[in-house]
Protein backbone atom coordinates (compact mmCIF):
# COMPACT_ATOMS: atom_id res chain seq x y z
CA UNK A 1 0.00 0.00 0.00
CA UNK A 2 1.37 3.39 -0.97
CA UNK A 3 -0.29 6.27 0.84
CA UNK A 4 0.32 9.91 1.74
CA UNK A 5 1.63 9.75 5.30
CA UNK A 6 2.12 13.53 5.48
CA UNK A 7 -1.58 14.34 5.10
CA UNK A 8 -3.27 11.31 6.68
CA UNK A 9 -1.94 9.30 9.59
CA UNK A 10 -2.94 5.63 9.84
CA UNK A 11 -6.21 5.08 11.66
CA UNK A 12 -5.00 1.80 13.17
CA UNK A 13 -1.81 -0.26 13.14
CA UNK A 14 -1.30 -3.80 14.40
CA UNK A 15 1.79 -5.69 13.29
CA UNK A 16 1.74 -5.82 9.50
CA UNK A 17 -1.87 -4.60 9.35
CA UNK A 18 -2.48 -0.94 8.65
CA UNK A 19 -5.70 1.00 8.16
CA UNK A 20 -5.50 4.34 6.34
CA UNK A 21 -8.23 6.66 5.02
CA UNK A 22 -9.13 6.03 1.38
CA UNK A 23 -8.36 9.69 0.68
CA UNK A 24 -4.66 9.03 1.44
CA UNK A 25 -4.33 5.93 -0.77
CA UNK A 26 -2.19 6.24 -3.92
CA UNK A 27 -1.67 2.63 -4.95
CA UNK A 28 -1.82 -0.97 -3.76
CA UNK A 29 0.97 -3.45 -4.53
CA UNK A 30 0.79 -7.22 -3.94
CA UNK A 31 4.03 -9.23 -4.12
CA UNK A 32 3.72 -13.00 -4.40
CA UNK A 33 6.49 -15.60 -4.51
CA UNK A 34 4.10 -17.95 -6.32
CA UNK A 35 1.05 -16.79 -8.25
CA UNK A 36 -1.52 -19.56 -8.50
CA UNK A 37 -5.07 -19.22 -9.77
CA UNK A 38 -6.28 -19.24 -6.15
CA UNK A 39 -3.90 -16.39 -5.23
CA UNK A 40 -4.94 -14.46 -8.32
CA UNK A 41 -8.60 -14.85 -7.34
CA UNK A 42 -7.79 -13.51 -3.84
CA UNK A 43 -5.96 -10.53 -5.36
CA UNK A 44 -8.90 -9.83 -7.68
CA UNK A 45 -11.27 -9.82 -4.71
CA UNK A 46 -8.97 -7.44 -2.82
CA UNK A 47 -8.75 -5.13 -5.85
CA UNK A 48 -12.54 -5.07 -6.09
CA UNK A 49 -12.76 -4.05 -2.42
CA UNK A 50 -10.32 -1.19 -3.05
CA UNK A 51 -12.38 -0.07 -6.07
CA UNK A 52 -15.51 -0.01 -3.92
CA UNK A 53 -14.00 2.64 -1.59
CA UNK A 54 -15.22 6.19 -2.16
CA UNK A 55 -12.58 8.79 -1.25
CA UNK A 56 -14.24 12.17 -0.77
CA UNK A 57 -17.42 10.37 -1.94
CA UNK A 58 -15.93 9.90 -5.42
CA UNK A 59 -14.88 6.79 -7.32
CA UNK A 60 -11.45 5.16 -7.60
CA UNK A 61 -10.35 4.22 -11.11
CA UNK A 62 -7.48 1.93 -12.15
CA UNK A 63 -6.03 4.13 -14.89
CA UNK A 64 -6.70 7.47 -16.55
CA UNK A 65 -8.82 7.71 -19.68
CA UNK A 66 -6.96 9.29 -22.60
CA UNK A 67 -4.21 10.41 -20.20
CA UNK A 68 -6.61 12.38 -17.99
CA UNK A 69 -8.22 11.53 -14.65
CA UNK A 70 -11.79 12.81 -14.59
CA UNK A 71 -12.62 15.39 -11.90
CA UNK A 72 -15.05 13.09 -10.09
CA UNK A 73 -12.60 10.15 -9.91
CA UNK A 74 -9.38 9.34 -8.06
CA UNK A 75 -6.56 7.23 -9.44
CA UNK A 76 -5.54 4.16 -7.41
CA UNK A 77 -3.82 1.44 -9.44
CA UNK A 78 -3.59 -2.10 -8.04
CA UNK A 79 -0.42 -4.00 -9.00
CA UNK A 80 0.45 -7.68 -8.61
CA UNK A 81 4.07 -8.80 -8.89
CA UNK A 82 5.11 -12.42 -8.85
CA UNK A 83 8.53 -14.05 -8.79
CA UNK A 84 9.97 -17.52 -8.38
Give an overview of the whole structure:
There is one protein chain. By secondary structure, the chain is of the alpha/beta class. It has one helix at residues 37-52, and strands spanning 2-3, 12-14, 17-19, 25-32, 59-61, 73-75, 78-82. The longest helix has 16 residues, at 37-52.
Could you give a short description of this structure?
This protein has one helix at residues 37-52; strands spanning 2-3, 12-14, 17-19, 25-32, 59-61, 73-75, 78-82. With 84 residues, it is an alpha/beta fold.
Could you tell me the mean pLDDT? 85
Low-confidence stretches: none
Distance between the ends: 22 Å
Number of helical elements: 1
Q: Biggest sheet, strands in spatial order? A: 1-4-7
Proportion of residues in β-strands: 25-35%
Task: Describe the global form.
Answer: globular
Q: What is the radius of gyration?
A: 14 Å
The biggest sheet amounts to: 3 strands, mixed
Number of strands: 7
The SS-based structural class is alpha/beta
Give the SSE order as H and E letters: EEEEHEEE
Helix content: 10-25%
